[in-house]
């Protein structure tokens, strides 16, 4: 299990490398959720998502020989930008393997940070290409199956407790699971009473399915619009952390996620990607059993959205249905 000491070391390592993002109270969210509610704005992090935390923490631990060999990573978008940004900052060569369906804004940003991109037919082919490049000598920066990456993401949990010691609930989206593993490990080590709730979208719910099956389940395809949650599988490392530290995993539809995204944009003026907006949709599901004195945090993990996607989603989704829930048991 990920120890608090590793996360505290990451926090020290990351000082001056990443933003300490704000935690903001939103009265509109309080009215909607029936309790004090806050956004942890990782959408304002460098590159537009939380990913540089884990990327920097991993790259800063590389030996001189590993730095000379360069790094390789697989990503549907945000991890690519995080690794590319960290690598450029540290003077390390980076190759990013990305599926051909990756939106152009992610590709342009990744190239803009100086990384080489290898496009593959799908995410599975991207993982296969990464393995080939790793075998050829590059160091793998895995998006979630790495304690150093998870520890970097876990520094968000330390910031949450520093800014809001009275926190009772934290909603965190799940892709491969390093983000929620790190945050849960940090918060639970210091304040075990906090309830950590994981969130996935239908069609990108590898964690929920794996929890239900009691083993790792690989999705045949990623069908959700939440592309940055699009890991086809989780890992034993992240599955163990979610099983042991997370109270529940909620799976919501794309439709309610898009409704939450536009509501947040209109009422809070923050543009979040579906992988972040889904946390509001999940928090809606729990409103009937929420107490007025709860303090609820929604992790706004990223805000990298193309304008054309916003237009497409607005036309496609008009009648949000109720979210589904998959308990972790």
Name of the level-1 CATH class of the largest domain: Alpha Beta
Write the CATH fold name of the largest domain: Rossmann fold
Strand content: 15-25%
Give the mean pLDDT: 95
**What's the domain count?**
2
* Overall outline: globular
Helix segment tally:
14
How would you describe this structure to a colleague?
It is a single chain. The protein starts with a helix and ends with a strand. It is α/β, with parallel strands linked by helices. It is globular and about 55 Å long. It has helices at residues 4-14, 27-33, 51-59, 64-69, 78-90, 104-112, 123-135, 147-163, 178-190, 206-213, 236-245, 254-268, 274-285, 307-316, and strands at 23-25, 36-41, 71-74, 94-99, 116-120, 139-140, 169-173, 195-201, 248-252, 295-300, 324-326. The chain has two domains: 4-50 and 146-326, Rossmann fold (3-Layer(aba) Sandwich); 51-140, Rossmann fold, CATH 3.40.50.1100. The chain has 14 helices and eleven strands. Strand 4, helix 6 (104-112) and strand 5 form a beta-alpha-beta unit.
């Amino acid at each position: 299990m990920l120890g608090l000491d590793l996360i505290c070391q990451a926090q020290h390592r990351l000082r001056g490398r990443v933003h300490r993002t704000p935690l903001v109270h939103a009265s509109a969210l309080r009215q909607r959720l029936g309790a004090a509610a806050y956004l942890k704005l990782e959408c304002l992090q460098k590159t537009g998502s939380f990913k540089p935390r884990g990327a920097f923490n991993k790259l800063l631990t590389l030996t001189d020989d590993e730095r000379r060999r360069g790094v390789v990573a697989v990503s549907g978008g945000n991890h690519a930008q995080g690794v590319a940004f960290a690598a450029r900052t540290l003077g390390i060569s980076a190759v990013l393997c990305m599926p051909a369906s990756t939106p152009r804004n992610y590709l342009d940003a990744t190239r803009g940070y100086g990384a080489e991109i290898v496009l593959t037919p799908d995410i599975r082919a991207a993982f296969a290409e990464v393995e080939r490049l790793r075998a050829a000598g590059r160091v793998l920066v895995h998006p979630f199956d790495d304690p150093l990456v998870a520890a970097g993401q876990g520094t968000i949990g330390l910031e949450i407790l520093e800014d809001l010691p009275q926190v009772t609930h934290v909603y965190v989206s799940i892709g491969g699971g390093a983000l929620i593993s790190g945050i849960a490990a940090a918060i639970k080590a210091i304040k075990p009473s906090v309830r950590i709730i994981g969130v996935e979208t239908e069609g990108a719910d590898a964690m929920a399915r794996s929890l239900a099956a009691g083993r790792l389940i690989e999705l045949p395809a990623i069908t959700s619009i939440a592309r940055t949650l699009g890991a086809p599988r989780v890992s034993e490392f992240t599955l163990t952390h979610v099983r042991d530290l997370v109270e529940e995993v909620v799976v919501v539809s794309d439709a309610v996620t898009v409704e939450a995204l536009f509501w947040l944009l209109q009422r809070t003026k923050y543009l979040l990607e579906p992988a972040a907006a889904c946390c509001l949709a999940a928090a809606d599901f729990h409103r009937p059993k929420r107490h007025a004195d709860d303090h609820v945090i929604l992790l706004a993990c990223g805000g990298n959205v193309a304008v054309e996607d916003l237009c497409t989603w607005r036309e496609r989704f008009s009648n949000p249905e109720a979210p589904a829930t998959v308990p972790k048991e």
